[in-house]
Amino acid sequence: MARIDPLISALAQRDKLDTEERTLLGALPFYQRKYGRGEEIVSVFSRPTHSCLVLSGITGRELFLKDGRRQVALLQVPGDFVDLHGLLLKQMDHSVVAMTDCETMFIPHTAVYNLIASAPHLGRLLWLLTLIDAAILRERVLSIGRRSAPQNLAHLICELYSRLETVGLVGEGRIELPLTQAQLADVLGLSMVHVNRSLKNLRNEGLLSWQQSSVEIPDFQRLAEFSDFDPIYLQLTPEPR
Amino acid sequence: MARIDPLISALAQRDKLDTEERTLLGALPFYQRKYGRGEEIVSVFSRPTHSCLVLSGITGRELFLKDGRRQVALLQVPGDFVDLHGLLLKQMDHSVVAMTDCETMFIPHTAVYNLIASAPHLGRLLWLLTLIDAAILRERVLSIGRRSAPQNLAHLICELYSRLETVGLVGEGRIELPLTQAQLADVLGLSMVHVNRSLKNLRNEGLLSWQQSSVEIPDFQRLAEFSDFDPIYLQLTPEPR
DNA sequence: CGTCAGATTGATATTCATCAAGATCGGTGG
DNA sequence: CCACCGATCTTGATGAATATCAATCTGACG
């Protein structure tokens, strides 16, 4: 399996890719790099020259308040382009951190620019990926703003389940989520203690079980129902774009 | 002043536009339409054929829970492209609503496609606009997740002040914000009563005064300090992109 | 003058954060 | 093998932030 494959499957999930497009993607120059949990991959205020793609593990976009409190705006899973944003934003307004140990792949901006110029359709699909990013953020705003803590948590699990499913990382109603409750708290906008209790709540309801880093969801429909999860915003159906 | 001017100034704020690009933008076909407060401009699940630009007034992207509770993920001001998203998302995952009476301009997707094809640089700038949308959403997540209610409110005011400033809608430390407290509550992820009290709090601190629909900010720096506002995420400095 | 939407206030309930203390568990060195 | 250690999870107690409910007040307007 080529290293670029998670990206190809993420794109192919949203529109047909012809052979030439696959070839172009496969020909992108890159280098790989590993990060340990907690390491910063892209720094706020930096001016990236490469775009980063997650190959394995989970990363997150993090923001800080002056007093040091943290909010993780969004989690990223394999196949996600982590900072396509840097391409146009020039200066980062947030940082990207490894939430777990992970492998990443860096592609020079110049190569991405050339790709977009020679294959506008691929350019639109990369644009689409950033729009899906924004759609996920809108759902986070809804979750944090209006859902109860347990629903917020359940919705996040449903979302990660669906996203991991599209890259083949779901096995028998089970996903690997090696996140601590403190990290979850920063994603959910809650305190660590409250995450613990919300989790207990979901466990008691039989909505999921969480042992080690493995989350088991006995009945996805029930969890989706409980958290009001509708995957439409993930744009998982192919359309000509 | 041509109708497309708010967009041109939004773009010119982020990068140089040459004469030809301005001409292309000015030549875009469009029709105009007015909406009254509360009217839906783009419906969730719809498949837009036109992209909508706000000319005057304030619109918002709204999401609903099954029980009917609402969250407004993001507000839009004149010059903002309201659903560039529809261009690639195909099916809307949220709706756009007029928060106040407003005037809008609709441009056929085909024309936008042609524009992007013939002027890739403009295409990148439109992409950039959607990235700024996402950056604003990240800040909303931070505000709702980690800031106190008064800070959340103050941060929103700072942001709107900055955004309105770039389109020339700030006069003497004062912006027009004809929103009810119930609408603000849906933006801030708070209850209406709590918005009222947070507002009182800011008034008592002398951070702002709000009469009718006019918000006066005696000392922007103090308000920014209080709410931890840093406009970097709005990308207000021109860069070659 | 009556009406209506919106703003304000008080009283109370719920949710969530904070603080502090154990409990659990995988590693690690003796 | 065992004792210890640090990180994480769990729980209880308490307090602060926020929601909800129910009036009342205000001002615009027919």
What is the structure about, briefly put?
Chain A contains 9 helices and 10 strands. Chain A is α+β, with helices and mostly antiparallel strands and 241 residues long.
What is the element layout, followed by pairings?
Two copies of one chain form a homodimer.
Chain A: H1 5-12, H2 19-26, E1 31-35, E2 40-42, E3 50-56, E4 59-64, E5 70-76, H3 85-89, E6 95-98, E7 102-108, H4 109-118, H5 120-146, H6 149-166, E8 174-176, H7 181-188, H8 192-204, E9 209-211, E10 214-216, H9 220-227
Helix pairs in contact in A: 4-5, 6-8, 6-9, 7-8
Chain B binds a DNA duplex (30 and 30 nucleotides) through residues 148-149, 180-182, 190-194, 196-197, 199-200.
Structure description:
Two copies of one chain form a homodimer. Chain A is α+β, with helices and mostly antiparallel strands. In chain A, 44% of the residues lie in helices and 20% in strands. Chain A contains nine helices and ten strands. In chain A, the strands form three sheets. Chain A has a four-stranded antiparallel sheet with strand order 2-6-4-5. In chain A, helix 6 (149-166) crosses helix 9. The interface between A and B is large, with 47 and 47 residues. The structure holds a DNA duplex (30 and 30 nucleotides).
